[in-house]
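In the laboratory, one determines a bound structure by crystallizing the protein with its ligand and collecting diffraction data. In a computational setting the workflow is compressed into a single prediction: the sequence and the ligand go in, and a structural description comes out. We illustrate the idea with iron/sulfur cluster.
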Amino acid sequence: MPVAAIEEAAERLAGLEGSALRVRPRQCLNLRHLRAGCSACAEACPTKAIRWSPRLRVEPFDCAQCGACATACPAGALEVRDSVWCRRLAQISRAVAGTGRVLFACPLHLRRDRSLRRRTDVVEVPCVGAIQPWEIVAAVAFGAASVLLLEARCSRCTYRVAHGRAVRTVEEAQSLLAAWGRREEVRLGSEPPASTEAGSAFRALAGLLPQKGRSADEELARRGLEPQEIGGDTTQPQDPGEGLERWIPSSHRKLLFFLHRLGEPAADRVAPNAPLAHVEVAPDCTGCGMCAYFCPTGALRKRETAGKTELAFRAQECTNCGFCTRICYQGAIRTTEARPGAVLSGEEQVLWSGRPSTPQERLARRLV
Ligand code: SF4
Ligand code: SF4
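The predicted complex, in structure-token form:
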């Protein structure tokens, strides 16, 4: 792709920047490599404010800033602003502290069933498709016995496209929790459980009055949480080494933070649909290092050590975006089930070591 075209596409993508979304266009897989073929954000976007087919089209005025695209983006090109997720995390914290469960509900659902507004266990989200797996893991880490994503009105909603994203989010969270041996109930459902909160009649009246409670910062501080430590926006990219600029998505750092809080994993593998992966290279890897050059997070790195080239992998930084498998011309790299131990420890593994072969050497090998 010519540089001017990349610059122009980056500028268009940046048009989605708004009250809830932060955009880092250079992280977008499609702007990093021609063979990326990613359209996850477009598939999740309920208002079609972003399209990749036949070419990138961004309609900033159609963007509802719901954040469904940020949930889908595996590279951190589209992310939810700190102020938004901090507020929601504080609501999750209050819900768990008050009732031991979390009910995520969208504005449409809350309008149709006004009693939900008065419940402490309800966390309002712009759309259930905007909920991120780490938020479900956080709820469980806080002590929630159940997490329910209310979906009853989705088929009649103008945002219904994002429902598929909500289904995947629940499946990803279930896979993660299963690997950590957690059996809490996490599901999509149409019926909210009956409220068990005491004094609901009083709360119904109080719900009509302006509420004065702990601020989001105070609520997080009560749990000893500090946004920057959890995975807040950072101004520092990863060391790019020889490759393109790279960042670990904020959503991925938050996921790691709360997985640590779940304690020791119970399984030695995580199901392949989770946003974590292990990477393997086949013997026909040529050591060209293209996967490391383009990897958006820096999970793959190429380096020279003692006259040899090494390809190293750090599972903690891999979001299972699958980009490396799509751009390898040899088809020599593949993602497999993540090892939770390696994800938590941050250990590095050398996947390949040797002298990169030239195209002539590879041709000669094929001919004889
Ligand atoms: S989901 Fe992210 S990486 Fe994929 S096309 Fe959209 S912005 Fe780019
Ligand atoms: S190692 Fe591969 S799957 Fe993991 S983040 Fe990098 S490009 Fe994506």
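The domain at 276-367 is CATH 3.30.70.20 (Alpha-Beta Plaits). Keep in mind that any predicted model is a hypothesis to be tested, not a measurement.
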